[in-house]
């Protein structure tokens, strides 16, 4: 068991990520007290029932009162309003953080509400599932996965080090990068792939009338994997695309160009072009596996409830 890094931690928004943080922090003995709040009364009631936090408050301001660390785990679109509510309650030396999948836009709406006596250290765990809500979280979610901690101009190195230590205590490996770089990288490795999944499942669903349900009946594992991703939370992903617009559009532009080149290769029977690309991409997958980076274990992706007895 690690020594407690923080006395009181407040989690605002107790869905998949917020509840997983609470469970993992408890598992590691990382914090003294965990307070939690959520805008949804049904979620607050369920969190009380599940019993993985010490205190459930009506408002985020109450949860943040006296906290050493406040982590905003709401959809991105709510981060600015939550920061406006908790900012004035932050005690001297307190750290405000978040888990949003986009960093630039989130920082621009949260940072103005951080008083000079507190610190702001944005973060993003690269771990999740297609499920939402407090029942979907589990303590092992971050084990062996990356958590990106963002350094902002003027950020306090000690506060950054504490947030890194917190994520490492939750089981993650940590790295730092600028918000701008983060948003470009995750546009191509996470946001555009989700958009592709939403699109292909949508297209197939539109064709379903024509094929009389064959789309679902015969869907093999490739299409099934897309349906898992396309089952991800609509609010969360709407907010991701609205808030990482420039980077996503830049990466989509490149993606569409490359797709058009493939379309052309198929039209003109250029088998060598297709074969070369498929050979390169197969090697990439093999490299990922060799480096032990394929930590998206299927049982993690498919989990919808914490282990019995938690
Ligand atoms: N789901 C995933 O796989 C991952 C999500 N993230 C980020 O984590 C954040 C949360 O995502 P999830 O936990 O999946 O969502 P979730 O939908 O499971 O939970 C979000 C919770 O926030 C609450 N909420 C909404 N507005 C609020 C407000 N104004 N004040 C207090 N509570 C409020 C909702 O009632 C809900 O319980 C998002 O910003 C997302 O970008 C980061 C990594 C992975
Ligand atoms: O479920 C999956 O495959 C994911 O890709 C989870 C995920 C979603 C959003 C993030 O910002 C990070 C991880």
From TrEMBL:
Name the pathway. Amino-acid biosynthesis; L-tyrosine biosynthesis; (4-hydroxyphenyl)pyruvate from prephenate (NAD(+) route): step 1/1
Q: Which family does it belong to?
A: Belongs to the prephenate/arogenate dehydrogenase family.
Which parts of the sequence belong to the Prephenate/arogenate dehydrogenase domain? 7-296
Give an example GO biological process: tyrosine biosynthetic process
One Pfam family from the record: PDH_N
Is Metal-binding a UniProt keyword of this protein? no
Keywords assigned by UniProt, alphabetized = Amino-acid biosynthesis, Aromatic amino acid biosynthesis, NAD, Oxidoreductase, Tyrosine biosynthesis
Q: Which GO terms describe its molecular function?
A: NAD+ binding; prephenate dehydrogenase (NAD+) activity; prephenate dehydrogenase (NADP+) activity
What is the protein name for this chain? Answer: prephenate dehydrogenase
Entry-linked InterPro entries: 6-PGluconate_DH-like_C_sf, NAD(P)-bd_dom_sf, PDH_C, PDH_N, Preph/Arog_dehydrog, Prephen_DH
């Amino acid at each position: 068991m690690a020594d407690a890094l923080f006395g009181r931690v407040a989690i605002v928004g107790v869905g998949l990520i917020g509840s997983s943080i609470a469970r993992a922090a408890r598992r590691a003995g990382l914090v003294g007290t965990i307070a939690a709040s959520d805008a949804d009364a049904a979620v607050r009631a369920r969190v009380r029932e599940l019993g993985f936090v010490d205190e459930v408050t009506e408002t985020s301001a109450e949860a943040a009162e006296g906290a050493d660390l406040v982590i905003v785990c709401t959809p991105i679109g709510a981060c600015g309003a939550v920061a406006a509510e908790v900012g004035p309650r932050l005690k001297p030396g307190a750290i405000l953080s978040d888990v949003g999948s986009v960093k630039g836009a989130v920082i621009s709406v949260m940072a103005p509400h951080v008083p000079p006596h507190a610190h702001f250290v944005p973060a993003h765990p690269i771990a999740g599932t297609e499920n939402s809500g407090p029942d979907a979280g589990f303590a092992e979610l971050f084990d062996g996965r990356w958590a990106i901690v963002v350094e902002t101009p003027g950020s306090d190195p000690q506060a950054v080090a504490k947030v890194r230590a917190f994520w490492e205590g939750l089981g993650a490996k940590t790295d730092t990068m600028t918000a701008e770089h983060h948003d470009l990288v995750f546009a191509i490795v996470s946001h555009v792939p989700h958009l592709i999944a939403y699109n292909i499942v949508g297209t197939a669903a539109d064709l379903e009338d024509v094929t009389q349900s064959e789309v679902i009946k015969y869907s093999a594992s490739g299409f099934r994997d897309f349906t898992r991703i396309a089952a991800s939370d609509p609010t969360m992903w709407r907010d991701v695309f609205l808030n990482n617009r420039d980077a996503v559009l830049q990466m989509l532009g490149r993606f569409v160009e490359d797709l058009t080149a493939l379309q052309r290769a198929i039209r003109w029977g250029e088998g060598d072009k297709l074969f070369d690309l498929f050979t390169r991409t197969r090697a990439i997958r093999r490299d990922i596996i060799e480096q032990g980076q394929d930590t998206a274990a299927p049982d993690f992706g498919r989990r919808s409830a914490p282990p019995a007895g938690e």
